[in-house]
Specification:
The protein has helices at residues 12-19, 35-48, 64-76, 87-102, 115-124, 131-146, 151-157, 169-185, 191-204, 206-215, 229-239, 264-267, 269-272, 289-299, 329-345, 363-372, 389-403, 410-420, 433-446, 457-470, 513-527, 555-560, and strands at residues 25-29, 57-61, 83-86, 109-110, 188-189, 218-221, 245-249, 277-281, 283-284, 309-310, 322-326, 353-357, 377-379, 479-483, 492-497, 530-539, 565-568. The protein is an alpha/beta fold and 570 residues long. The chain is globular and about 65 Å long.
Length: 570
């Protein structure tokens, strides 16, 4: 693919971003404005034009799924030699390489989770702490580390933190000290230590800094609004005195402040990097004008907010988002399931529909209502696709079969193997484990259509193994149920946003201005997931019969009117 052809399909602002190859570049990209297209074409254009050497480019993001998507797109654009990783994956690769040289021996093992050691720390301190509280303490440890605080510095601010249950500030500090001591005794490091140790090694070992900076010259960082102080520090160490850094982000989608993310690095990029090229992407290619108007109303006047402009023109069939109120959660869930059944009957694919909510407990009523209607659904964030037993078995069986593969068409080779495991062209009747197994195998079968023409059976299984390693999951033919946080980065034709009442959106423990503003941004993320249809709803009470009306509509709904028309239902 030649350099000029990589620019041909870009709009004017995307092209400006793609052609800005050197020096600091900041791309402020609103939801649905083609930011991934802009940065992948920028990288590929840099490679094709000879400005970038592929193995000297590092593209950084925050999830394995996003990194896998970047790698896939770059391969298709002829820039397969570019490294696209999460911050943690990049830091871990460097630690594994340099640790034997600098420290000697093997890198300490990385903990799968903090729960077990925290449990032992509680026992050591004679504290009774339940599983939920242990998770909260783990979150405090993560926040402290990514915020760049020592335990002593954390002790100075702990009283301003929201601590689990009845835990006292001094107990929270003692738990963290005991956790670190046990971890050191066992010669283990945790997820955040990977970044801390990598940063420390580059900072204190000139030879390591020299080799790292020699290896990577050009950096691209996606979702820059989610960068924490620790990640920002590590990025600066990777860069050294050089200025070839391109960042892309949207301050209106900063929804991880509780985990240390700070949009100030995005909004202050020009101050930090003098002479930076700043490009604004505001042409929305995803949503209908009605959805975009709803999103703009919510964020109007907020710091750093971009104003989205619809590329699509209004059509007679476009729906104006409606805010509906129901008597209780079950009535709301049943109504959503009824609407989804109608959408599917009218031709919308289940995988093009999502129901989004604030907290996981809201999924229970939805699962019941969808199950009663015989509608397949997938709860995002539950057991991961590549961890399912039937998926593991299918990958092993396919890999073994590919060793002795013939020259048959790829579809026949894969389908023959999957049939031996229970797959068929038509889904089984009814619900339950048999249908769930078929859905998993059918998702693998669907990946055949994503392979390039002429791909071999072995290439297909190589792709499967790469997806498994990166947890790059295929799309299941099922309605998605997800929290607003889990929906970030995804999109669907039809989105049902439920539970829009005070105490849920905004959540009850969001009390200060900054916390309420984060809840606003979270709702904005939910709204901008919708391509064609957006429905908003809330219920007046939970599922306890006989209890008086206790909920009020979310304060944000009033701001969305008249974009979101209010209706009383059920």
């Amino acid at each position: 693919m030649n350099a000029e052809s990589l620019l041909a399909g870009l709009d004017a602002q995307q092209r400006v971003a793609a052609e800005a190859l050197f020096g600091p570049v900041c791309i402020l990209a609103g939801a649905g404005t083609g930011k991934t297209r802009a940065i992948t074409h920028r990288i590929a254009y840099g490679v094709a034009s000879g400005a970038f050497t592929p193995n000297r480019v590092m593209a950084l993001t925050f999830t394995n799924r996003a990194a896998a998507e970047l790698r896939g797109r770059l391969r298709q654009l002829g820039a397969g030699g570019v490294s696209a990783r999460t911050f943690h994956a990049a830091a871990l690769a460097q630690l594994n390489y340099f640790w034997p040289q600098v420290v000697g021996g093997q890198l300490p093992s990385v903990l799968d989770g903090k729960g077990r050691i925290l449990g032992h720390a509680a026992e050591k301190l004679s504290l009774r702490v339940d599983t939920a509280a242990l998770r909260d303490v783990a979150a405090e440890i993560e926040w402290r580390k990514v915020s760049g605080l020592s335990i002593d510095e954390y002790a100075a601010v702990v009283e301003s933190r929201s601590l689990p249950g009845t835990m006292k500030p001094e107990q929270a500090v003692d738990m963290q000290r005991a956790y670190e001591e046990l971890k050191d005794e066992r010669k283990q490091i945790d997820f955040e230590d990977v970044l801390l140790v990598c940063a420390g090694m580059i900072e204190t070992e000139p030879s390591v800094a020299m080799q790292v900076r020699e290896q990577y010259r050009f950096f691209v960082v996606d979702e820059y609004q989610d960068v924490s102080p620790l990640q920002h520090q590590l990025l600066q160490l990777w860069l050294g005195t050089r200025r070839d850094l391109c960042v892309v982000g949207d301050a209106s989608q900063t929804i991880y402040s509780f985990a240390g993310a700070r949009s100030e690095y995005l909004l202050g990029f020009e101050r930090e990097h003098r002479g930076a090229t700043v490009v604004r992407l505001e042409q929305n290619y995803r949503s209908t004008p009605a959805v975009i108007e709803t999103a703009n109303r919510l964020m109007r006047g907020r710091p750093g907010a971009l104003t989205l402009h619809a590329v699509a023109t209004p059509r007679p069939g476009d729906e104006v988002p409606e805010a509906e109120v129901f008597e209780d959660d079950r009535a709301e869930a049943r109504a959503v399931a009824e609407r989804i059944a109608t959408e599917i009957a009218e031709g919308t694919k289940p995988e093009s529909i999502a129901v989004l909510y604030r907290v996981n407990v809201q999924a229970a009523a939805l699962e019941q209502a969808l199950g009663d209607r015989g509608i397949s659904y997938s709860v995002r964030g539950s057991k991961r696709f590549f961890d399912l037993p039937e998926v593991r078995q299918a990958i092993m069986t396919l890999r073994a079969a590919s060793v002795a593969a013939t020259d048959e068409p790829l579809f026949k080779s894969v389908s023959d193997v999957l049939r031996t495991l229970g797959w068929a062209v038509q889904p089984p009747e009814g619900r339950g484990s048999v249908r769930a197994r078929w859905e998993s195998l059918n998702a693998i079968m669907g990946l055949v259509d994503e392979m390039p023409e002429g791909a071999t059976f072995r290439q297909f299984t190589d792709e499967l193994l790469a997806r498994q390693a990166g947890q790059h999951e295929p799309t299941l033919s099922a309605v998605t149920l997800a929290t607003l946080h889990a929906a970030k980065g995804l999109e669907w034709d039809s989105v049902h946003l439920i539970g829009l009442s005070e105490g849920l959106v905004p959540i009850s423990y969001a009390t200060g201005f900054e916390q309420i503003d984060e809840e606003r941004r979270l709702l904005y993320v939910g709204i901008t997931r919708a391509r064609k249809r957006l429905r908003l709803s809330w219920s007046q009470r939970g599922n306890q019969p006989g209890r008086p009306t206790g909920r009020q509509p979310s304060r944000f709904l009033a701001e969305l009117a008249p974009a979101a028309r209010a209706q009383r239902r059920g």
